[in-house]
C-alpha cells in the first residue's frame, strides 16, 4: 500500500532527469482435513449361547487419530498455523548483504544476535506465508468477467480463514486478519482503490489490474502487491516494474540511503519501453508514490523510499521494516487524487476532537474496537452490521 508524497514536499524534491508521456499505470511489485470414523462396533454375537458360557466381548475398532492437514485447500481455508504446528514458517527469499555490510552474514556473533531476535520475526513470517498462499491462489483464479467485489472478497475471505480470525466479533480483527483492504486498481488508477458496496465494475480482458493487500498477525503487517494483465502487449510493463522492485530490494539494508535506492529503482524502471497498439511508450517511475516503513498496527511509518533518484539522505536502520514498492507508468509519472474514497484509517496521535453527531461518536467507537489504526473500508463496516454510517464517516474523515 503505497505512501503518497504531499504536493508541497514534491516541489522540493530533486528528481533525476527523464520524464515523459502517457496512459496506463502498473504496479509490482482435495480437502486436507481427514474424515474420521465414529467408534464402530462388531455386531457379530452368538444368537443362542450355551448355558453358562461366557458372552463374547464386543470388538472395538481402535480410534483413528485425527491427523493435522498437510496441504492447503482451494479456496484456501486451512489455518496456516495448522500447516506449521511448530511455527517454523518458511523464511522466503532472502537477499544477502554486500560490500561493507557483508559482515552481517559472516560474523558469528552478529548471526547469534540475529537469532535471538527471531521471535520479532515470527509474526511477520506467519503473515508472509498467509499472504503467499492467498496470493498464489488469487493469481490462479482471477479471470476477466469477475466483478471487483467478487475478487476482493475472495482474497479477504481467504486471508481471514488462514489466520483463523473472521473479524466479526468485537476486537477479533485486531488479533490477525487483513492489514488493509484489498486494493484492485485498474489501468490509469495506480493505487488505493477497493470496491465499495454496490460497485458494479467488472474486470475486462484488456485491463491492467494492480492487486495490493496486507496481512497482519498481532499487528505485524506484511504488505505486498502484484500486477495482472491478460494481453501479452503489457508484458514489458510488468517486467519493468518487477525488475525495478527486485533492484530496490537488493539495494536495501542497514545504513542504505533511501534517495540512492530510489535512483537505482528509477534507472532500472526507465530502461524499459512498451509498445501498445502500435505506439511505443517509455516506462516511467511515478515520482509522488513511494515505499515506506511499516510500524505495528500502522501501515505507513515515518520513513519513505522514493522510486526516483533524490537527495534524501535518510538511512535504513536496524529494526526497521520496509515495504519496497515501485510503480511504473506509460503516463507522465505523476498521480493525483481522483474518484471516490475507499480506504480509511484512524490517525493514532491526533488530538481530542469534540464530536457533535451521535452517529460519528458511535462509529468512532466501532472503529476503535475493531480496527484501531488499521486501514478499513466501507465493506468492512457492512460486515459488522453497521448501517447509515456515511454521515458519520464524512464527519470523522477529511
TrEMBL record:
Region named Disordered: 1-107
Residue numbers binding a divalent metal cation 2: 223, 292, 325
Compartments (UniProt record): Cytoplasm
Keywords from the UniProt entry: Aminopeptidase, Cytoplasm, Hydrolase, Metal-binding, Protease
Binding site for a divalent metal cation 1: 212, 223
Cellular component terms (Gene Ontology): cytoplasm
Cofactor binding mode and count: Binds 2 divalent metal cations per subunit. Has a high-affinity and a low affinity metal-binding site. The true nature of the physiological cofactor is under debate. The enzyme is active with cobalt, zinc, manganese or divalent iron ions. Most likely, methionine aminopeptidases function as mononuclear Fe(2+)-metalloproteases under physiological conditions, and the catalytically relevant metal-binding site has been assigned to the histidine-containing high-affinity site.
Ranges of biased composition (kind: Acidic residues): 35-46
Function: Cotranslationally removes the N-terminal methionine from nascent proteins. The N-terminal methionine is often cleaved when the second residue in the primary sequence is small and uncharged (Met-Ala-, Cys, Gly, Pro, Ser, Thr, or Val).
NCBIfam families: met_pdase_II
Protein name per UniProt: Methionine aminopeptidase 2
Organism, scientific name: Trichoderma gamsii
Native organism taxonomy: Eukaryota, Fungi, Dikarya, Ascomycota, Pezizomycotina
Amino acid at each position: 500500500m503505497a505512501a503518497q508524497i504531499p504536493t508541497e514536499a514534491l516541489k522540493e524534491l530533486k528528481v533525476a532527469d527523464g520524464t515523459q508521456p502517457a496512459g496506463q499505470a502498473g504496479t509490482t511489485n482435495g480437502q486436507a482435513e481427514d474424515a474420521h470414523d465414529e467408534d464402530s462396533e462388531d455386531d457379530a454375537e452368538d444368537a443362542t449361547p450355551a448355558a453358562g458360557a461366557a458372552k463374547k466381548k464386543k470388538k472395538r475398532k481402535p480410534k483413528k487419530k485425527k491427523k493435522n492437514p498437510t496441504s492447503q485447500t482451494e479456496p484456501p481455508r486451512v489455518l496456516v498455523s495448522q500447516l506449521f504446528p511448530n511455527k517454523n514458517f518458511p523464511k522466503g527469499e532472502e537477499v544477502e548483504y554486500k560490500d561493507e555490510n557483508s559482515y552481517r552474514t559472516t560474523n558469528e556473533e552478529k548471526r547469534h544476535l540475529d537469532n535471538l531476535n527471531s521471535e520479532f520475526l515470527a509474526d511477520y513470517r506467519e503473515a508472509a506465508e498467509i499472504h503467499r498462499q492467498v496470493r498464489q491462489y488469487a493469481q490462479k483464479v482471477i479471470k476477466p468477467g469477475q466483478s471487483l467485489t467478487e475478487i476482493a472478497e475472495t482474497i479477504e475471505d481467504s486471508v481471514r480463514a488462514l489466520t483463523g480470525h473472521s473479524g466479526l466479533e468485537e476486537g477479533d480483527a485486531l488479533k490477525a486478519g487483513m492489514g488493509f483492504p484489498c486494493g484492485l486498481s485498474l489501468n490509469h488508477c495506480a493505487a488505493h482503490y477497493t470496491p465499495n458496496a454496490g460497485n458494479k465494475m467488472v474486470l475486462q480482458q484488456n485491463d491492467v489490474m494492480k492487486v495490493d493487500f496486507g496481512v497482519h498477525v498481532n499487528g505485524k503487517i506484511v504488505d505486498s502487491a502484484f500486477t495482472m494483465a491478460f494481453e501479452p502487449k503489457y508484458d514489458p510493463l510488468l517486467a519493468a516494474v518487477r525488475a525495478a522492485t527486485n533492484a530496490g530490494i537488493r539495494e536495501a539494508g542497514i545504513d542504505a540511503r533511501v534517495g540512492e535506492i530510489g535512483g537505482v529503482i528509477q534507472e532500472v524502471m526507465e530502461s524499459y519501453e512498451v509498445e501498445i497498439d502500435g505506439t511505443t511508450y517509455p516506462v516511467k517511475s511515478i515520482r509522488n508514490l513511494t515505499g515506506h516503513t511499516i510500524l505495528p498496527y500502522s501501515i505507513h511509518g515515518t520513513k519513505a523510499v522514493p522510486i526516483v533518484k533524490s537527495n534524501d539522505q535518510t538511512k535504513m536502520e536496524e529494526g526497521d521494516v520496509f515495504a519496497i514498492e515501485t510503480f511504473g507508468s506509460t503516463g507522465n509519472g505523476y498521480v493525483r487524487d481522483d474518484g471516490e474514497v475507499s480506504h480509511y484509517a484512524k490517525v493514532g496521535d491526533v488530538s481530542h476532537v469534540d464530536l457533535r453527531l451521535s452517529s460519528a461518536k458511535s462509529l468512532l467507537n466501532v472503529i476503535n474496537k475493531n480496527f484501531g489504526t488499521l486501514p478499513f473500508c466501507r465493506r468492512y463496516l457492512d460486515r459488522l452490521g453497521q448501517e447509515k454510517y456515511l454521515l458519520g464517516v464524512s464527519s470523522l474523515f477529511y
